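User: Can you recover a sequence for this backbone? Please restate the input before giving your answer.

Assistant: Of course. Working from this structure:
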């Protein structure tokens, strides 16, 4: 596996999204071919606030064409519905989302994760009417193939359509380590091709600290493990670079620099967050390897906002026993978000418990679904 706005708006977006001079420091030299990356500026509070956020599920494991539209509390849920004859949204074990936020007359568009294959990603982006030309930034939650597998193919298909120096936010150098799947039979789990990204004109932005993305969103940075949640390691990473592929040891955390192979602990995993006016935080966990509760608590900590409007994404509970899942639901009940929208790797056990314990806050998600937060 391998892989026309006002001048003032352009200026600010160029600074914030393309890691311009004053906002980003320490261009990091890579190797071969003089690869360069940037490091995101640390987040300053208060975090950005948006008037409206629309989250579209581009790729996920399920699509139900006859699922009804609905409103859950203040959240509008719009389903994609029945596709035209001869066409279909493609489902796969992967996750990709499109995030459109508005503040006043500003609109920002971000792609978060890229599913398992470019075929599914490119097909679904086209069917959902998402314009690659509108994309202001990319975010990759972590270095697992089911979240980055479609990225390089998306960049190749849209060469010439994407903005120059399009920033790709990642949580750390571990994103680029080659990986093996170890839950069961040991298998190659691929790598993210850094050279292909840079060859496509993408600027890689390392964001281990909480950081603003595209002027509207923010990432939570490294997520501490402070709750009961256990970090599972279904993959292991090979440390080092060969033929330009892999991760640079000196860019890893100190305890991993001298290792050859290390289990994933997902120190580089990012949660993507928005503060929606008069609603609170929307926390998009993507896969929650560090724990969905830990992810939400980290978002609250770095933003200083206690009110959680929505928790959504993969919660990585499918491997866990029912007692652990119940404990997770109990912790979410204590946090008391307005809605909980599980996806991807969450598992049916969580959905069953959630429907029983928090039925008025649960939303079943499908590929193509659109969730609208705010006015």
């Amino acid at each position: 596996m391998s892989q026309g706005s006002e001048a003032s708006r352009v200026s600010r977006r160029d600074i914030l999204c393309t890691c311009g001079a004053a906002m980003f420091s320490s261009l990091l030299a890579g190797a071969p071919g003089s690869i360069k990356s940037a490091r995101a500026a640390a987040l300053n509070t208060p975090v950005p606030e948006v008037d409206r956020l629309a989250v579209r599920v581009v790729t996920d494991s399920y699509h139900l064409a006859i699922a009804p539209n609905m409103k859950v509390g203040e959240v509008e849920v719009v389903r994609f519905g029945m596709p035209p004859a001869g066409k279909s949204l493609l489902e796969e074990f992967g996750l990709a989302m499109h995030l459109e936020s508005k503040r006043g007359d500003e609109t920002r568009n971000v792609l978060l994760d890229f599913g398992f294959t470019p075929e599914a990603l490119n097909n679904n982006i086209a069917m959902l009417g998402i314009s690659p030309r509108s994309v202001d930034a990319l975010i990759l939650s972590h270095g697992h193939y089911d979240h980055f597998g479609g990225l390089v193919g998306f960049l190749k298909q849209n060469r010439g359509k994407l903005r120059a120096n399009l920033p790709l936010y990642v949580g750390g150098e571990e994103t680029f380590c080659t990986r093996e799947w170890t839950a069961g039979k040991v298998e190659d789990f691929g790598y993210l091709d850094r050279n292909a990204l840079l060859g496509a004109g993408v600027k890689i932005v390392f964001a281990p600290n909480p950081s603003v993305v595209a002027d509207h969103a923010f990432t939570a940075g490294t997520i501490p493990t402070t709750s009961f949640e256990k970090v599972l390691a279904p993959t292991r990473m090979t440390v080092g670079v060969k033929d330009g592929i892999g991760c640079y040891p000196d860019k890893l955390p100190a305890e991993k620099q001298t290792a050859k192979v290390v289990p994933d602990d997902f120190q580089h995993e990012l949660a993507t967050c928005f503060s929606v006016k008069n609603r609170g935080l929307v926390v998009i966990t993507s896969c929650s390897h560090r724990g969905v509760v830990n992810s939400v608590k980290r978002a609250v900590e770095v933003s200083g906002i206690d009110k959680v409007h929505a928790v959504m994404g993969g919660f990585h509970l499918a491997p866990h026993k029912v007692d652990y899942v119940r404990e997770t639901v109990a912790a979410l009940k204590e946090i008391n978000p307005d809605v909980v929208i599980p996806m991807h790797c969450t598992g049916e056990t969580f959905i069953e418990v959630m429907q029983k314990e928090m039925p008025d806050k649960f939303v079943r998600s499908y590929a193509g679904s659109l969730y609208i937060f705010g006015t």
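That completes the design. Residues 4-35 have pLDDT under 50 and may be disordered.
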